[in-house]
Specification:
DUF4855; globular; single chain; 13 strands
Amino acid sequence: MQLEYAQVKKIIMLDTMSCFRRQRSFRWLAEEFEPLTLYSHEDGRRCPFFTEFLLAPQQSSRGRFYCGLYAGYDHARKEDWSEWVDWLFMKEQGVHALATVADLNGIQEIGVWLMLPYPPPGDYMYEQGKRPRRFNIQLHRLLALHDTIETVIERWSRFYARTPVRLRGFVWGRQGIPEADVEVVEMCNEWIASLGLERLWMANYRSNRVIEWRELHFSAIALFANYTGRSEYGKDWLYNTGKFAALNGMGIQVVNGRGVIYDPNHADLYLEMVKNISSREEEARSFTRFRIQRPLMCL
């Protein structure tokens, strides 16, 4: 059984805000979104390309990290989380620019997925003042997530309700889920589900609790194989990741990277793996509707 396009939700993941390591800023203007949302044929015809976007914050203007991979170095605090929320509603960039492209080109609907800032467990200060919050208290971690999500939803309804962009849901901000995160993830996901929104986990293959993604109240998961073509992970690791994802109703992250660790043919191998799995009847029945295209740009 060959999967039809309509059965598969293809999402492109984009880094946003600042990235001091790469010495650049990701504003995402309309002219940058247009080639991602519209495919131009040789005869001049254009048709929708990606219509689902996952926006992942990297660093704030202060250089603090939002993602779980680097949060232990210098984690984002309340003022940084607020800066991320403000970025989502700035004019002529980000979500606003995406809505503009959709409007100008007659695209009826574009889905947006937001990766949440990660509240690292431990003695990390989040908010100072008369009633300080620290991330060594689980309730404070939950409140940071709750208040931020609530603010995003409220502002989204004011800014984007009459535009083609639709808030699909939220993405957990760390690839693995250690014991200290389990309670926070479960409670946060249950609350997001009650709002009628999706909960996506971008997990590494063989991360802690990957097989328990449904019990953690995620609505979908997409695995990252860590395959680049020039690392300790070989082609077998890539194919095993794809087969594991297919057999367990998971999605797959399809990487298109640049830099010294990436073999020139690595993207073709990812696509070949997805094609092979999708063409196998028993495995295709389990293959989830989520695939993630990650245009990584590692130096």
